[in-house]
Amino acid sequence: MSPEHEAEICKERNQIERAINGLKRFRALASGFDKRAANYFASCCLIATLTWL
């Protein structure tokens, strides 16, 4: 692989890791308190929206 290609992969992976770590700040989402998939998905959407704002 060329160094440019590796740098691009590292940038993309870093962005994904930062997004996931940002969501883990919220304890309920990180520990999976919600028992139903619909509630967990709603929590993910709400927290992602709050993080985006």
Characteristics of this structure?
53 residues; mainly alpha; 3 helices; elongated; Transposase
Radius of gyration: 15 Å
User: Mean of the pLDDT scores?
Assistant: 79
Q: Give the number of DSSP strands.
A: 0
- Supply the number of helical segments: 3
- How many domains? 1
Q: In sequence order, what are the helices and strands, one letter per element?
A: HHH
Helix share bin: over 70%
Weakly predicted, low-confidence segments:
none
Estimated structural class: mainly alpha
Protein model, in words:
The protein is mainly alpha-helical. The chain has one domain. The chain is 79% helix and 0% strand. It contains three helices and no strands. The protein is elongated, with a radius of gyration of 15 Å. It starts with a helix and ends with a helix. The model has no long low-confidence stretch (mean pLDDT 79).
Short summary of the structure?
Helix content is 79%, strand content 0%. The chain starts with a helix and ends with a helix. The protein is mostly helical.
Helices, strands, pairings?
Blueprint: H1 3-23, H2 27-31, H3 37-52
